[in-house]
Write a structure and sequence with these properties.
single chain, Aconitase, domain 4, 7-stranded mixed sheet, 7 strands, globular
């Protein structure tokens, strides 16, 4: 995980559910490029063509509500999204995002679509291009460690490879 995270903003509203993040008809594959090509198709059919590596999603309340599909944060991650900032997250999406290594932060930001912002996950802060700083929820250290290792599977492998203390 890179920190701070800098990227161009895409803005979405409240109650963005997992069905619009990655529509169900694409769930039969394990091909991450298919997920990426159809990310946010249910709300913004051109998103996958417009998004660039490192871009940041900014949303309202209850981001990731709906089904518990792990493919939703995977679709965003493989589309190039470097972080999702929302006023609030559905709990299962929040944990799925951490588990697959997609950084996120709960915060209420005032910014414009296309603006570049900077997210400091370690401090729980976001700063706009105009220099306005917003305070968000700081992630606990154990979640930051999982993100820094690239997700839960990579984190567990790293822990298993560490020498055991006698």
């Amino acid at each position: 995980m890179k920190n701070p995270i800098k990227g161009r903003v895409w803005i979405y509203g409240d109650d963005i559910d997992t069905d619009v993040i990655i529509p169900g008809k694409y769930l039969r594959t394990k091909d991450m490029q298919v997920f990426a090509a159809h990310a946010l198709e249910g709300i913004d059919p051109e998103f996958s063509k417009k998004v660039r590596e490192g871009d940041i999603l900014v949303a309202g309340n209850n981001f990731g509500c709906g089904s518990s599909r792990e493919q939703a944060p995977l679709a965003l991650k493989y589309a190039g999204v470097s972080c999702v900032v929302a006023k609030s997250f559905a709990r299962i999406f929040f944990r799925n995002a951490i588990n697959v290594g997609l950084p996120l932060m709960e915060a209420e930001l005032e910014c414009k679509e296309g603006e570049e912002i900077e997210i400091d996950l370690l401090k729980g802060k976001a700063r706009t291009a105009s220099g306005i700083t917003f305070k968000g929820n700081q992630l606990p250290n154990f979640l930051l460690e999982i993100l820094q290792d690239g997700g839960l599977v990579a984190h567990r492998k790293k822990l298993q490879e560490q020498p055991k203390e006698a």
